[in-house]
Amino acid sequence: MTFPMDVPDQPVVGEGRPHAEPQSNPASLESAVKAIVDAVTRAKTACVLPGILVARAGLRREATALIDASGLPFAAMFMDKTTLDEAHPNYIGLYDGRLADESVRAFVEGADCVLGLGALASDFNTGAFTAKLDRSKTINVFHHSTRVGNAFFEDVEMKDVLVALAKRLPKRTDLKGPKPAELGVPSGSGGDKITAEALYPRWSRFLKPNDILVAETGTSSMGLGPAKMPKGATFHNQTLWGAIGWATPAAFGAAVAAPDRRTVLITGEGSHQLTAQEVGQFHRRGLKPIIFLLNNNGYLIERLLCKDANIYYNDLAQWHYHLLPQALGCDGWFTARATTCGEFDAAMSKAESCGTGAYIEVVTDKYVAPPIPMKLHESIKALYKA
Predict the structure, then answer these.
(1) Taking the mean position of all CA atoms in its chain, how far away is CA 187?
(2) How far is CA 123 from CA 75, 78, 105, 109, 120, in A?
(3) Fold held by 196-385
(4) What is the phi/psi pair of residue 356, to 5°?
(5) For the chain, which residues score pLDDT lower than 70?
(6) What distance, in Å, lies between the first and last C-alpha atoms of the chain?
(7) What's the burial of 299, exposed, middle or buried (CB within 10 Å: 0-12/13-18/19+)?
């Protein structure tokens, strides 16, 4: 929000009045709910895609009640990860077009009915537009309207639709989707280098129930997208715009808002260089995050998407990252630099028990990348050859 500089000093005149919440048109609401119930009932296979709008509108409880009452399985697109709790038995995994789990893609795209709840078909959410969803078989409940196939119902509030569907959708016990994939057992030990197979499963196992995980745009978040989050844990990523540098101040805001929960920040060094000064704010406010800085010697996601991976602008100034907290006034924090699996294991163990803020620089080779960005890389290579 922007205000003219002379406005903040002006006296307040009058009294504010509570803003009346929009109301559904009863006839439109009934038509929309009936159309959804009919479509789901007719479908031999169906699933739900809960979108980030559910969380933003404060409707997680209502959406979960819909899942519980209907028995429908649900997947999460990238932006929508942990909109609903991934420990829920109906969760089947990450849906990201051809970039993520093939069994989830086949189940979602093969369903007779896909019920979206504020789901957004953005580039990240659709796996770089590789998602193939038949519009005639999809439904999307938006904030103030609902689409069923090609039919639109206006003046219909999301909360009203969710509450009505929880009451009227039939209980389905015949729909069994795939089990959500795990990242597997971490590879490597001792003096072994930190590979993608060593790194991302370790991070996944490090997470605890109710953690707040903030993952930066790039390979770090893409590597953790398929990880099944513990009960009550939330995953935050700047998926809509892909803005780098977002994660560090976003983690600070999350930690201020929920100081009783553990905040874990995972960021790449290129993104971190844009907003690293915010690390000092954690200590200033007495907060104790656990920060992992992934140092792979440059903008790896850009290297994977560029025709010339080694072009100069993908390189970075070489900071001594693990020394930043001391320079930024974070006295008493635990800091470490890990270049091997053994050093990484020891640093993670210490971070869990140190009782202070923790900052761990994790060093990998230049092209260590998890599966999703590697699939993007292969798509780009094919495009350049076209």
Answers:
(1) 25
(2) 17, 10, 16, 17, 9
(3) Rossmann fold (3.40.50)
(4) -125, 180
(5) 386
(6) 45
(7) buried
How many C-beta atoms surround the C-beta of residue 382 within 10 A? 9
Note whether 178 and 92 are within 8 A (CB).
Answer: yes
CATH architecture label of 26-168: 3-Layer(aba) Sandwich (3.40)
Residues 161/32, Cβ–Cβ less than 8 Å: yes
Q: Which residue has the tokens 């907003």?
A: 275
What gap in Å lies between CA 189 and CA 205, rounded to an integer? 15
- Mapping DSSP to helix (H, G, I), strand (E, B) and coil, where does residue 110 land? helix
Domain locations in the chain as residue ranges: 26-168, 196-385
Q: What is the DSSP string of 163-189?
A: HHHHHHSPPP-S---PPPPP--SPP--
Q: What are the C-alpha distances in Å from 236 to residues 85, 316, 329?
A: 13, 25, 26
| Residue pLDDT, tens place only, 278-320 | 999 999 999 999 999 999 999 999 999 988 999 999 999 999 9
196-385 matches 26-168 in CATH topology? yes
Alpha-carbon gap, residue 187 to 185, rounded angstroms: 6
Which pair of tokens denotes residue 238? 């700047």
CA-to-CA dists, residue 93 to 147, 167, 181, angstroms? 24, 26, 6
For the record, the structure tokens of 307 come out as: 């025709």
